[in-house]
UniProtKB/TrEMBL annotation:
Coiled-coil residue spans: none
Membrane topology: Single-pass membrane protein
Organism the protein comes from: marine sediment metagenome
NCBIfam families: tatB (TIGR01410)
Alphabetized UniProt keyword annotations: Cell membrane, Membrane, Protein transport, Translocation, Transmembrane, Transmembrane helix, Transport
InterPro entries according to UniProt: TatA/B/E (IPR003369), TatB (IPR018448)
Entry annotated with the keyword Calcium: no
Main location: membrane
Cleavable signal peptide: none
Protein name per the record: Twin-arginine translocation protein TatB
GO molecular-function terms, A-Z: protein transmembrane transporter activity
Length: 94
């Protein structure tokens, strides 16, 4: 969880033990665990609601657009979109 190894968690435990003391550390650890569980549950609920409310084809379009933006130069992309829109407007008017 959080990309931390055993040494990092051991360090957190030792610091927590020094700061909180051996009598309060288990209670704080349980409280933190409960909060993390609730946060994880709420995140899963939000993800589930989003996946149910947004159609898959719209998500694919957004995903493709994000990939295109990551792979290209944004300045060039904006220029291309503006030129395409101006060309389309000129075609409709004239």
């Amino acid at each position: 969880m959080f990309g931390n190894g055993m040494t990092e968690w051991l360090l957190v435990f030792v610091v927590g033990l020094l700061i909180l003391g051996p009598e309060r550390l288990p209670a704080v650890t349980r409280s933190v665990g409960r909060v993390m569980g609730r946060a994880k549950s709420m995140l899963a609920d939000v993800q589930r609601e989003l996946s149910e409310s947004v159609p898959a084809d719209e998500l694919k379009v957004v995903s493709d657009n994000v990939k295109m933006l990551r792979q290209s130069n944004v300045k060039t992309l904006v220029r291309r979109v503006v030129v395409d829109e101006v060309t389309e407007l000129e075609r409709k008017q004239g």
